[in-house]
Amino acid sequence: MTSVPKAFVGTWKGPFRLTFAGTEISAGTFTVVLTEGGTGERVGTVNQFDAFGNFTCEDDITLTSATEDTLLVEGRASAKPHNRCTSGAHTVKLKLNGERLEYTSDEPRAGNPTATLDRFR
Description:
Blueprint: E1 10-20, E2 23-34, E3 42-50, E4 55-66, E5 70-77, E6 90-97, E7 100-106, E8 114-119
Antiparallel strand pairs: 1-2, 1-8, 2-3, 3-4, 4-5, 5-6, 6-7, 7-8
C-alpha cells in the first residue's frame, strides 16, 4: 500500500508511557489525528500533553509505509508555538488492534513513548 487506509483516519486519544532511568512511567496523554495521504506526505499530527493536561509537544507525521493494519511514519516537531519536542526525525509505528491504535515511538531522547489509543471521532 502507498496510502493511509481509511480505518486509520480520524482522531485517537489515550494515555502514554515512557521509559525514564530504566523504569516505565505514565507521562500524560496523546492525541493523534490521522488524515488521508500517500507515502512521503504529511498525514497527521501527534499532540502530547503532560500529566496535568498542559500542552508540551506537537509532531507532524509523514507516511513512510502502510499495510492494512500498520503505518510507519516519521515524526518531526511542528512549528506550533511553545513546542518542546526533541529535535530531528524519529520513527513511529501505528498498529490497529481491534478498535484501538497502538503507538510505538523509537525516540530514546523522549523515553521511547508507547500508548494504546481509543478512537475519539
